[in-house]
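Let us work through a complete example step by step.
Step 1: write down the sequence.
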Amino acid sequence: MLAAGLLLSGPSLHFWFNLMSATFPTRDIASTLKKMALGQIVYGPTFNTVFFSLNAYLQGETTPEVIARLKRDLLPALKGGLIYWPLIDFLTYRYVPVHLQPLVNNSFAYLWTIYLTYMASLKKTVLQA
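Step 2: predict the structure and record it as tokens.
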């Protein structure tokens, strides 16, 4: 999962925070809440989908197995993200200078990656309908 941090998380967060800063350059409450909402609606689901897919492919799973994993694990991870990330995002967008935002976010993302890795490693049975 080191590759996920080096090749996926770091560059994508750098791009994301710069995009948010360019799109909403002020640090007022309204801009901060917009950045947070976009993170939960766009960045979080995209990153988690790529993370789970990459993890599954690296474990040798086939495309149908990856899709089954996403159906099984993505929604619980997104729900967990709704609990974990809003306060961190608020503090980061509101008080941390843009050039340090990826570093601060990656510090908290370390714990989040542990959670995602745990979720991705679970062997759950998929109920057939």
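Step 3: interpret the result. The chain has one domain: 28-121.
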